[in-house]
Amino acid sequence: MVTNNPLGAPLDTFITGVQRPFLISGPCSAESEQQVVETACALQNSGIHLFRAGVWKPRTRPNTFEGRGEPALDWLMTARRETGIPVSTEVANTQHVEACLHAGIDVLWIGARTTVSPFAVQEIATALEGTNVPVLVKNPMHADLPLWMGAIERVQKATGAPVWAIHRGFSRYGQKEYRNAPMWEMAIALQTAMPDLRIICDPSHIAGKRELLEQVAQKAMDLGMHGLMMESHCQPEAAMSDAEQQVTPAQFEALIQGLTIRNAHIVPADPANLGALRLQMDSIDEQVIELLQARMNLAREIGKYKKNHGMTILQMRRWKEVFKTRGAWAEAAGLGPEFIETYLEQVHKESIRVQNDEMSQKKPDNK
Ligand code: PEP
Ligand code: MN
Predict the structure, then answer these.
(1) Is the CB of residue 207 below 6 angstroms from any atom belonging to ligand 1?
(2) pLDDT the model gives residue 273
(3) Superfamily (CATH) of domain 11-257
(4) CA nearest ligand 1 atom 6, residue
(5) Nearest bound ligand to CA 113?
(6) 354 CB less than 6 Å from ligand 1?
(7) Most buried residue among 3, 137, 147, 179 by CB atoms closer than 10 A?
(8) Which one of 91, 116, 201, 205 would you pick to mutate in the ligand 1 pocket, going by the greatest count of ligand atoms within 8 A of its CB?
């Protein structure tokens, strides 16, 4: 079991001594020794503090590339020897932790799909007991602050080294601009609850596409987040996972150079900070619009059904029921009756417009 810092200096000093932004980059997945080493060497002059590559890949669906597993840890260590840059990978169970400790991996991270399970996080924490390895804890898939904090606390109790958080956005129902909704208010709430915690932003998994990386990274810097984890690959288009969100090491370097790093701190210890409150409001409005879009998509589907079954758009019984139930929910939530009436009328009007649009399409749908 490796208990000493493989960098040869207290990791605490190494990590806390670094100026913002703390930079982590490397491929989503370690695919081959050549790809890992080539990417790491190409990142050598970009100023990164930590190299990343996933060795065990938690994929949503089976029969997709699930990583090269344990042998890939040696490739990371080769990259480390060649570049002098410390290396990190994702762990999801005891066996992963032990293999990483044995190989000498410098920093571990816990992925979003693992943070959701206190059993899994506790298993990792127990495997880390008595060691001195820094750990980065990604937010859980869904926006549950106590669950994220609980995972951080479990790991903090186990390792003697710093534990940081990674904000990688949250899964959300419906159409969306981002792969994972940033919900910046969650990072702010975490910083408020744990003022000494360092939070790194992962624009790659928030954005899901290269074009949005810069804007997300800039926002994270404007919020005063401590650093960035961004995926890079020597041949992004050919990547075996997350191809659309990866950039070349040269593009990564250019993107970082183009960022404005402000000292101004919006990520606050003070929950009454005006900037923080406005950010929360922006994020809520964004979610309201996404939900309205999801509602209109359903209205369109219902429009197709009505058309194919010879039904009229306006169904008075259903409309009365909607009006009554939503009115009661709004009242219980303390919203003014006039406001909710106007809102429902407008939503209904828009649903009718969408369904009219469907009805006026010439060909019947074969649904
Ligand atoms: C990753 O960093 O490659 C990864 C799988 O991320 P997440 O856990 O955020 O989905
Ligand atoms: Mn990835």
Answers:
(1) no
(2) 66
(3) Aldolase class I (3.20.20.70)
(4) 111
(5) 1
(6) no
(7) 137
(8) 205
Distance CA 244, CA 208 (A): 7
Using the CB atoms, write b or e for 69-107: b if 16+ within 10 Å: eeebbebbbebbeebebbbbbbbbeeebbebbbebebbb
The lowest-confidence range among 199-203, 262-266, 352-356 is 262-266
176 C-alpha to ligand 1 centroid (Å) = 19
**What CATH number matches the domain at 271-360, 1.10.10.10, 3.10.105.10, 3.30.70.890, 1.20.59.10?**
1.20.59.10
User: What are the backbone dihedrals phi and psi of residue 205, each rounded to the nearest 5 degrees, phi first?
Assistant: -80, -20
Tell whether the torsion through CA atoms of 58, 112, 71 and 231 is positive or negative. Answer: positive
What pLDDT, in 10s, does the model give residues 193-242?
A: 898 899 999 999 999 999 999 999 999 998 889 999 999 999 999 999 99
Instruction: State if residue 67 touches ligand 1 by the CB under 6 angstroms criterion.
Output: no
Burial 273-301 (b: 16+ CB within 10 A, else e): beebeebbeebeebbeebeeeeebeebee
27 Cα: distance to centroid of ligand 1 (angstroms): 11
Please name the residue that has the structure tokens 């009115």: 327
**What is the structure's pLDDT at 235?**
98
Residue closest by Cα to atom 4 of ligand 1? 111
Provide, rounded to the nearest whole percent, the portion of the chain with pLDDT above 90: 69
